């Protein structure tokens, strides 16, 4: 199977790279997409986002760089590394859920990252003082 485009690489993972062939619905569900979204990705009708590539890396062990650019090893990650990535993904997921629960926090995060390093340090210090740390 060709693996020249991100879509072809995703199809390779789904059909040959996991030890068994998954149908589009099964694979899409495993990476939090709909079957139609996966179909568009595999046919290179939609660009593969970094978020989707990250989820594929965490869930199925294929490196993000290989999925997106075809660079590096396509081989699945070692179990210890995969476990570390799952933990990081879960931490990010918790953070995103909190941001969804508090809509104003999204704007605050965006504003925070527009600040200079020195101003971000000041904000961090204020937060730590408010928390009594």
Provide tags for this entry:
133 residues; 2 domains; single chain; 8 helices; 434 Repressor (Amino-terminal Domain); elongated; mainly alpha
Relevant CATH superfamily of the largest domain: lambda repressor-like DNA-binding domains
Question: Which overall shape is indicated by the principal axes computed on the Cα atoms?
Answer: elongated
The Rg value, from CA coordinates, equals: 19 Å
| Helix content, binned percent | 55-70%
DSSP strand count: 0
Largest sheet, in brief, is: none
Q: Given the helix and strand composition, which structural class is it? A: mainly alpha
H and E string = HHHHHHHH
CATH class of the largest domain: Mainly Alpha
How does CATH name the architecture of the largest domain?
Orthogonal Bundle
Q: How many individual helices?
A: 8
Average pLDDT reading = 90
Portion of residues in beta strands equals: under 5%
- What is the CATH topology assignment of the largest domain? 434 Repressor (Amino-terminal Domain)
pLDDT below 50 for ≥5 consecutive residues: which ranges? none
Number of domains: 2
Assembly context of the chains: single chain
Termini separation comes to: 55 Å
């Amino acid at each position: 199977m060709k693996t020249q485009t991100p879509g072809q690489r995703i199809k390779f993972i789904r059909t040959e790279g996991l030890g068994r062939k998954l149908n589009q619905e099964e694979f899409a569900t495993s990476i939090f997409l709909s079957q139609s979204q996966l179909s568009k990705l595999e046919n290179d009708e939609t660009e593969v986002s970094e978020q989707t590539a990250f989820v594929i890396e965490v869930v199925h062990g294929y490196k993000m760089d290989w999925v997106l650019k075809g660079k590096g090893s396509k081989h699945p990650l070692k179990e210890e590394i995969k476990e570390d990535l799952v933990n990081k993904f879960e931490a990010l997921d918790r953070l995103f859920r909190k941001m969804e629960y508090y809509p104003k926090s999204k704007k605050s995060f965006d504003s925070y990252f527009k600040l200079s390093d020195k101003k971000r340090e000041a904000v961090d210090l204020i937060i730590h003082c408010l928390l009594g740390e």
